[in-house]
Specification:
Blueprint lengths: L4 H17 L14 H13 L3 H14 L4 H6 L15 H18 L11 H7 L1 H10 L4 H4 L3 H11 L2 H16 L4 H10 L12 H13 L13
């Protein structure tokens, strides 16, 4: 039978994080140099969850040492490595290569320097609530669901937990602090799930700043009038 969620996380939870970092990216790691996807994973994981690196290194080696055999394949009790563009006989060698780079990073303390996200995975790992906000409220269906951008922002504010709203405001300020070109801000919000243009006359960064300001303004909801209480 397929793995339970608990068994999956025990055996492959952090391995799965590493593999997700490669979605849409080439598995171009060499014994001397980690590729772009692994560099992004190392940069973000060192910053947010440094303890998880040792777990990833162990799970990668365990999987490479014991690839799923016919019985586990038939029962579904295994983790399916996504297609990363490598031949099947090259997967094991690649997993060892990734594990070696992670081990080297842990033992030497070599951490990729801070940088603007370079992969889809890294954008969402760095700005998780902004990804939820843009992908959930500003998909291509937004014009059919709301009267405009302001209405979508207010719907998010009215339905999201205040702590998540505060987290989003922080992520908006962090994104704006990257001081990107407007074309790069447009690419960033597209990576994070926004499928509509910023409203005229705002540039992408101008609209993000406006959203941050509005969400940071305290709500003036004082409850129903006294006659209704």
């Amino acid at each position: 039978m397929p793995l339970s969620p608990l068994d999956h996380d025990r055996r492959y939870g952090e391995l799965d994080h590493v593999m997700r970092a490669y979605l849409g990216q080439p598995a171009d790691d060499t014994p001397d140099t980690p590729g772009q996807a692994l560099t992004a994973y190392l940069r973000r994981t060192w910053h947010q969850r440094p303890w998880a690196l040792a777990v990833a290194e162990r799970q990668l080696r365990d999987y490479a040492d014991n690839p799923p055999g016919r019985l586990r394949l038939r029962l579904g009790e295994f983790y399916a490595v996504p297609d990363v563009g490598l031949p099947q006989d090259g997967i094991q060698r690649w997993l060892y290569c990734i594990a070696d780079h992670i081990k080297h990073s842990i033992e030497t303390g070599e951490v990729p320097p801070p940088a603007t996200p370079v992969t889809h995975w890294e954008w969402h790992a760095r700005f998780p609530e902004l990804g939820q906000f843009l992908g959930g409220w500003f998909s291509q269906d937004m014009p059919d669901e709301f009267d405009g951008h302001d209405a979508a922002v207010q719907d998010y504010r009215g339905s999201a937990d205040p702590q998540l709203v505060a987290q989003l405001v922080g992520e908006l300020h962090e994104l704006l602090a990257l001081d990107l070109d407007e074309s790069d801000y447009a690419l960033a919000i597209a990576e994070l799930g926004m499928e509509v243009d910023a409203p005229a006359p705002y540039s992408p960064s101008g609209w993000l700043a406006l959203v941050a300001e509005r969400l940071a303004t305290p709500r003036t909801d004082y409850g129903p009038p006294a006659s209704e209480m």
